[in-house]
Amino acid sequence: MNQKIASLRLGALALAAAGIGPSARAQAESAAQAQRVEITGSASRSYVVNASASATKGDTPLIETPMAVQAVPREVLDDRQIRTSLDAIKNVSGVQSPIYQFYDQFLIRGFDSGYGTTFRNGLQLHGIADAVNFTFVDRVEVVKGPTSMLYGRVEPGGFVNIVTKKPQAQPLTTGEVQGGRWGAWRVSIDSTGAASTDGQWLYRVAADVDRADSWVQNTHRDNKALAASLAWQPNADLDARLDLEHYDRKTTWLDATVPIVGDRPAPVSRSFTTIFPQSWTDHPYTVRRTLLALEWNLRLNEHWKLTQRLHGVYSNENQQGVYADAFDGVDSFTSVRFTHTGPDWVRHTLATNLDLAGEFTTGEVRHRLLVGVDGSKFTDDTPGSTGPLTGTAPINIFNPTYPDYSAQLAALTASDAGNVIWRDWSTDAGVYVQDQLTLGPKWELLLGGRYDRAVDAYADTYGSRGESCYPHCTATITSPYPADKAFSPRAGLLYKLDEGTSVYGSYSQSFGSSNGRDNFGNPLEAEKGTQYELGAKASLLDGQAQASATLFNLTKTNITQYDPVDFFPHVVGEARSRGLELDLAGQVTRRVSVIGSYTWDRAVITKDPYNGTEGKRFPGVATHVASLWAKVDSAPGRREGWAFGAGLYLSSQRQGDDANTWQLPGYGRVDAMASYRTQLGGRRVAAQLNLNNVFDKVYFDRGGYGMAAYGAPRHLTGSFKVEF
Asked: Which residues, in sequence order, are CB contacts of 715 under 8 Å at separation 6+?
């Protein structure tokens, strides 16, 4: 029995002894629920996670899962003061920063994860930045390779699943204040406990306020987030949880802004930007987003259970900006563009699944069967306009001055407020079956298949065949595309060398993005992915640490390319990613915890008849990436003690485009931390300092489409935390 389950049980017993807790039966039911939550969540011991539901939607230990899954637990997030999933993934092999980072996107095994696509508790989100505030996060899990068999339309590299904190029976309130360079400050609070004396109702409430400027000129943020969760368990067979999250974000629009000169990003100041000052004062990018989620579990009997997950997301955005975009290749931006969307740019996401899971035996074979259905819909309506400003002045990148275009932009904003320049919607529905077969004491076989039916529709003011009615018109969807249908199989075979070591092989396919229509109006076949994977896993030091090694061969087909003659898409492209991944995480001694990874990935373009880039490196993907973070705790498990940590992140050179005409240089970055925890007035308190980019390395974090973005200079962050 792990420490979290034990602490929940002790808390329930203490409440009962005080005469305010639940009955003995309720205690037993609460303990059973705690065990269920723990098994299907993370069995976390310092830096290690021994189980994850993301890969199989079940309670399969990672040592018995025939595919690559890694997790970054809460302890690592706290020690490194990680606040975004884009920072968290740097601890995981096979995952790199995307070439463009406006939304939450990742390069996983060489391929982009999709249009702002992140998973929250196993359900997909689209078109979102900062999908979950990290005050609300328990851990970040990465499932690598094609996962369409369980999750439908997912890009072939895999996906990132953010697992949120759940209500707990033991009362605890944590407050934290954080401050740092560039005027950064942050205040967060997280409180959980019992909402009723009988222990049937539990709650969790959290809030976060985050404000800062940036090392990049004219760039700011002012974000607020609130989360509330209510859990109900009337008996040992039924439990349910309702989650509400609300976000009020205000940021500066745009991402990478350093232009490319020759084969490298221009040697401009790290503070350089093409963002105009008025973008923050007059035209900020604001988002008001609300998520409502429901999850329930019903145990039908000792062996079978029903689970449903459902979430709906309503996002109201006002995405505005003024930026320079036409670079002369030498020293100046020669034109300025604007983007204006009204305050009612609306995005909706609705996603749900229903799973029936159970166990039975046939002869000597144990089956863990999962049968499920799911569905999702995403809509995106964009009002406003976008285009070049007139009479613009050149901006010298080495000595920039920014004219004031406020009046011109205000006039365009008013005149184009009635436009709808983009509409789209997409639906996906699927049915899937998975069987995990235990073939004696050594062998595990996983077999699964899924059938999908997906439909897309979109319209913009440039029309589906190039005709333009911009800027004074409204995009109208006249008819959706024909449905894309696909079967996605997955198979894996695992052999246990002993209780703590296993080897496996697996095969999987994915069903990805729709590709639109060709020049005759015919629908193009959707993107597909195929992967072969071999791996080895080890549970070390009595489960205190996990290690894994993985070889993979992943091919993405049906990539669209635009014919240079008719300018319409054709399904002719293909890319292949082959690599080796190594991961180690856990408590290697009583005082030392580590998390580290290494990736070798050779991602290349294998078919490109129009541009002749066959054999070229896939853009954005470094061949070698390594990370290591280690923490030493002077008194593990005690309320008073010091902790010191340090880490290294290394990346080799990355190509900037398909033709490999420019590159982002390789780099190394060192981070460090020190913390002290004690008790003051009977309350636990902790103070912590994190120094990132210790040696102030100048490097580029990402780049593509002719632009690059600097990584953050050296900066110190201090925090003070208290528990009530």
From this structure: 180, 181, 182, 215, 691, 692, 693
